[in-house]
Known about the structure:
Number of helices: 19
Distance between the termini: 144 Å
Strand content: 5-15%
Number of strands: 13
Strand order of the largest sheet: 2-11-10-9-8-6-7-5-4
Radius of gyration: 28 Å
Amino acid sequence: xxxTVGDVSPYELLFKGLTLxxxxxxxxxxxxxxxxxxxxxxEFHIIHDIFSAFGGNHVSLTCDTSSDLYREVVSKxxxxxxxxxxxxxxxxxHLQTMLLHLLVKTHNFSYKRELFISSDGGxxxxxxxxxxxxxxxxxxxxxxxxxxxxxxxxxxxxxxxSDSPYIKHVAYKMAKHGWNVVxxxxxxxxxxxxxxxxxYTAGWTEDLREVVNHLHCTHPEAPLFAIGTSLGANILxxxxxEDGANAPLVGGASICNPWDILMGDRFFGRGLMQxxxxxxxxxxxxxxxxxxxxxxxxIADWEGIEKARSVGEFNKYTGRITGNFETxxxxxxxxxxxxxxxxxxxxxxxxNAIDDPVCSHEAIPFDECRMNKNIVLATTQHGGHNAFxxxxxxxxxWWVRVIEEYFSVLHSSSLMNKNTGAxxxxxxxxxxxxxxxxxxxxxxxxxxxxxxxxVFSM
Length: 458
C-alpha cells in the first residue's frame, strides 16, 4: 500500500527540507555564531568605535579640582584632558592584555645591576638603565648620578621584572626624556636567589621602603619619583599611605592598581576569562616558587603550593602563613592599598581602565581619591591591563606618555619646592636627632667613666 503525504512524519519532512540547504550556508551560520560569541567573550568594542568615528573616549578625572595638585599640575597635562583611542585592531581588553608582552615596542639597551642587601639579609636586584643603541643616550647608573637629574624608580607587576617588555618600554621612554631610571625587582625575581627566609607578597612594602631610603641616602639631591604597575602599583600606593609625609618621594604613578586584593580574588572567580587569567597567574607564581623551592618549603606550605590552582590558593599557602594571618581573606584585606589611600601625601596620579580584565573596576576608590588633595585618578573606558595601546601600529603605550607628561609638569611646578623643602627639613631633623644621640652617648660615656672616680674620691 503506497504511503501518502499525510502519512509522512512532519519531522521527516523538516529533516528532508534541511538537507536541501547547502552546507556552505550552515558553515556561514556557525561562523557568525562563533563571531558573536567571541565578540562578547573577548569584549570587543570595534563596532562602537566605528559608530563614534574612532574618536575615542574622554579621560575621566576624579580629584579635588580646588587642590594645588590640580591647579599647578593636572590642569597643564593635556593628555589627561584629551581622549584615549585604543589601537583599532586591538579593540578588546583581552587582546591588549594578552598581547602586551608580544607587541609593545622594546629597545636595545643594557642595565647595570646593583645588588641591594636588605636589613633581613635579603637580596634585591636594582637594575639601572645605562645606555641604548638607537639614540646613544647615556644615563649614569652608579653612585655618581648628576644632582639635578630626577630618578625614577619602577616597581614591576606580579611576576614581572626588568626584562619584561613593558617595563623596558617605560624605562626607555623615561631615560630618553633625560631622567635616570632604576627598576626595583621583587626579591626572588630578576635571576637573584632568595638569601633570607622572606618572600615578597601583595602587601609587602618593607623592601620598597628600604630601597627608597637607600636611594635617597645615596642620591640626596636627586628628586625621587616612582612608577608602580599592577601589583607593583598596589605596593607603591600602600607604601605611600603607610609612610604618609615621611616618604621621601616627590611624585608617584599607579598603573592598573588592583586596589582591593580581596575583591580582586572574588573577581577572578566571576567570568570564564577571569578564571583563565587566574590559572595563568597562579602558574606563574608557582614557577617563581619552584626557583626557590628550598626557602618556600621551609617557610610556607609546599604541598599546598603545588596543588594551588588560583592566586588566592597560592596566597593561602604562602602569604597567609609567612604573615601569620588566620585566614587568607584577612591577608588579602591587609595587603590592599585601598585601606590607606586616604593617607597618601605625595602627589600621585592613578590610571585604571574600566574594562581591565584582571582588576575589577568596582575596587577603584573613587570617593577616597576625590577626597585626597594629593591624588588624581584617571580612568578610561578601554585599555586592558597595563596596556593602553595607541596608534595603528600598536607599538606604544598611552599611559607611558601620560606619566612622562605628568612627571615633567610636576617637576617644574612649585609643588616640587614644597616637597623637596619638606624632605630637606626631614633630613635636617634626622641629622639633628643623630647629633643629639651622639651627644647623649658621649655624656653617658663620660658619666660612666667619671662617676666611680667621684665616688671613691669622696
